[in-house]
Amino acid sequence: MTTSATTPRPGDQLASTACGTRVVVIRAPADAHPQLACGGEPMVPAASVPVVKDPGSGTTIGKRYVDATGTLELLCTASGAGELTCDGAPMTIKTAKPLPASD
Q: Does 1 map to a domain?
């Protein structure tokens, strides 16, 4: 999933090999090959990694993480101590869109 030859696709489930973080790809660019990592180690298909309980504070379950350009979005399904990165840059928690004012 994270090699330069493959592209994450929406619905892919990925896991960290450094901590208990697990994510689902919500949105991904079709024309790019982002390098996803957590805790400094590449993310791999979740089916290849056993489930690990890791109550770390790096990622938060239920939060959506986006890259700097906003083209890659991940949903955290299991928390872990590692920090999510895309192409070496930290991913941030997606903020909610403000509701329109009703005057």
A: no
pTM, whole model, 2 decimals? Answer: 0.84
Domain that holds residue 22: 13-91
SS3 48: helix
67: nearest Cα among 83, 47, 49:
83
What's the pLDDT at 5? Answer: 38
- Structural domain includes residue 6: no
pLDDT given at position 6: 59
How many folded domains does the chain comprise?
1
SS3 of 46, please?
helix
Task: Give pLDDT < 50 ranges for the chain.
Answer: 1-5
- Tokens for 36, please give them: 């996803």
| Residue 69 is assigned to a structural domain of this protein | yes
Look at residue 3 and tell me if it is in a domain.
Answer: no
The helices-and-strands tally (H runs, E runs) of the chain is 0, 9
